[in-house]
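Intended use. Records like the one below are meant for learning the mapping from a protein sequence to its folded structure. Do not use them to infer anything beyond what is encoded.
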Amino acid sequence: MVKADTSAVAPCIGFYGDDFTGGTANLANYQAAGLRAVMFLNVPSGDDLERYAADVDVVGVAGVGRSLRPDAMTAEIEPVLSLFRSLGVRVAQYKICSTFDSSPTTGNLATVISCAKKTLGISTSIPIVAACPAFGRYTLFANHFARHKGKVYRLDRHPVMSVHPATPMQEADLRLHLKAQGPLQVGSLPIDCIRDGEAAIQSAYALCASAKDDAVVFDGLEQGDVDSAARFVWHLSQREIVFAIAAQDFAHSLGLIVAEKPRETVHAERTLLDVDRMLVLSGSGSALNGAQIHDALSRGWEGVLLDPAALLESGGVEAAIERVQTAVGRGLETGRSVVVYTALGPDDPVLLKAAVAADASGQSRDIFAARIGAVFGAVGARAVEQHGLRRIVFAGGDTSSLAMRLMQATALRVVASRKSGGNISKLSSRNPVFDGLEVLLKGGQVGAPDILTKALVGAEWTWLGEERSA
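Structure written out for the chain above:
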């Protein structure tokens, strides 16, 4: 890879999002705190840095590290960390999901720690801040907890995460969970230490560093605890670059500290504009995402099923693109919004059908994300080109990133967010057809049941952008 000319770019924070939609949430939190931020979809060239990032405080890179095996993770992450080193950032954040999705074979965080030590020259203990109280994620005495349907569960007993198909959480103690991923020594800063103040945190961290702990898990039960962790990281970064593994609440806390703004003084002064119709492309099978689709259909939206099993057939992707484009075009021409979906929740029989088809054909189930992404990219591009859409929605991290790359997207900035979850971003693309397109990128577990219909209404969103939506 040719080294980018970074002489004109001097952000103080860099972050890598280990999945696409989660990276967007992290970006939004930095912007909501008052920092100027941009996220690239690949490691940017020198020209792209000068064009999009010459005046920013935060540079992010969206990736898919959470879904990769260790060798692929190294190839994915090292160029990003090299970029951060060349930019001279003071804090480099590896943005994780707040449910700590990782395992020895997928999304291995021991691999991440090794890459950071090698590429950034990190020699001290790496802070880990997984707590995300605003999203119902808590760390207490190094054990991680997550809310589900109004109840809080220890992660190894969580109804969803304990049986996650890719990264099942079999251990809630994050120190032990990390040690299972590699030869790590992991310490912790318990809640009583964090609440004793900055001097106590500094002293406890120094003990971990002197004990040669590779990483330190910070407890967090309330937002103030995350604020304390972020404040410590920022102060530590005055002496040396700090690499932190952290969820999105850390980004908002750090952003407020860097921007020197108290939490209550961040206000929006502008509004997002309404759109009359929209296209939703959903590759998520979560229950919440299914409820969101049901809500849209109940309000008169056109629904189009994309059968994943059919994509395994010879010519299946091409046939699906033609069929879905026709159905989407028909719906948009009548003035209706359209949602294309692969499932209406985890119990939809179409998911079992797809799994059986993949196993019968001897193909990996991982192939679905790439093929669904190819369909979504083509369908979304046609809808924008032929029907003049100004805003579209992607639901599902892996399919979103693949589809966005097919639109020749290079970077995005968040322009609006919603308190109940979700962010609308403005796309920068080498293709003028898509440059300036507004996109709502959401994970399957994000947003209120009415988020899709509310995405049509500008007043439902808090403005974060530097320019008014047009």
